[in-house]
User: What shape does this take?
Amino acid sequence: MRLRLFCLALLLSLAVSAQDAKSRPQSASDNDARELQRLETVWNEAQVHGDAATLDALWADDLEVAVPRMPVMTKTTALDFARSGSMKFLRYETSDIHVRVYGDAAVVTGRLQRSRTMNGKEFDDDWRFTKVYVRQAHKWRVVAFHASEAAQAQK
Assistant: This one.
């Protein structure tokens, strides 16, 4: 009988503990991760629409961009390039997104597949990317974006 009462008390205790965990507010890290996911969508849409103003707001002043077949760019050169209209994105899609938050810094990794036109020619890119965000004045800003060719699947 005592064993049954002990087991019942243990089960009740576990049930209450599980309910408490469900009712706790989300952690700041969870909220930050959701916000960074949202900013990834903002980044993608701004690229497709050629929205340099949105990119300007999202990028930190000391941004560095390193992508295949392009010179390393600062915020100024990347914005000048975006404003030039010489490249237009037909597709800019990310997948396999992983967000890791470390206080006021975060790393976002994933896959980027995009189609673009440049100088009248169409190109497709399949990249793996890393973005580094920092929180500045209570807002997340991208300080580094690096991309490299995605590995092709083994046949």
Notes: Residues 26-149 form a domain with the Nuclear Transport Factor 2; Chain: A, fold (CATH 3.10.450.50). The radius of gyration is 22 Å.
